[in-house]
Amino acid sequence: MVCLGNICRSPLAHGILEDMLDADRFEVQSAGTGAWHVGNKPDPRSIEVAAKNNIDISRQKAKQFSTYDYEIYDHIFVMDKANYRDVIKLAKTPQEIEKVSLILESIYPGDNKEVPDPYYGGENGFEEVFKMLHKACEKIVSSRAFS
Ligand code: 4NP
C-alpha cells in the first residue's frame, strides 16, 4: 500500500487489508513515495479512525517505497495518480509495472479514481478515506489472487 507520506492513507489501507487476510499466508506492508515522515507513527487521525473500527495501526512506522519492494511484493496498490507515476519510475521491468494499480480500480475499474489526501482536511476526510479503503480491500480479498 503506497501513498505520499505513509502517515495517512496507506497506513489505513495496510491495517485494513492485514486485518482481512491470513497472516500466515500474506504479508502486507505500506510505504510512502516521499521520505519526510520516515520512522514516524501514522497521523493521530488515522490511528483514531482505525481504532474506532477495531484496527490497531499505532505500531506502524513510516517507510519510503524503494525499488527493492518490487522484488518482495506481488501487488502494489497506490492511492493516487501521482503515487502511480512516482512508483513506476522505480520499476526495472514491464512485469514490475504490471504489479502497480490504483487501489480504487478494484471497485471502479477503468475510472482512474483517486483516494483523496485527507492530511489538510478535517476528521470527516479520514472517515471517508477509511470507508473507501475498506470497500476496496473487501473487493481485493475476494479476488482470485487472494483466495
Ligand atoms: P498521506 O498524506 O500521503 O496519505 O500519508 C500526507 C501526509 C503528509 C504529507 C503529505 C501527504 N506531507 O506533505 O507531509
CATH architecture: 3-Layer(aba) Sandwich
Percent helix range? 25-40%
Please give the alpha-carbon distance between the first and last residues.
19 Å
Structural class of the secondary elements? Answer: mainly alpha
CATH homologous superfamily placement = Response regulator
Largest sheet: 2 strands, parallel
Question: Quick one: how many beta strands?
Answer: 4
Strand content: 5-15%
Mean pLDDT: 97
Q: Count of DSSP helices? A: 6
CATH class: Alpha Beta
Order of helices and strands: EHEHHEHHEH
What spatial order of strands do you see in the largest sheet? Answer: 1-2
Integer-rounded radius of gyration: 14 Å
| Total individual domains | 1
- Give start-end ranges of low-pLDDT stretches: none
How does this model look, in words?
This protein has 147 residues and is mainly α. It has a single domain (2-146), classed as 3-Layer(aba) Sandwich (Rossmann fold). The chain is 39% helix and 7% strand. Strands 1-2 form a two-stranded parallel sheet. Strands 3-4 form a two-stranded parallel sheet. Helix 1 runs parallel beside helix 6. It is globular. It starts with a strand and ends in a 5-residue tail after the last helix. The mean pLDDT is 97. 4-nitrophenyl phosphate binds next to loops.
Précis, in short:
By secondary structure, this protein is mostly helical. It has helices spanning 9-20, 44-52, 69-72, 81-88, 94-98, 123-142, and strands at 2-3, 31-32, 76-78, 100-102.
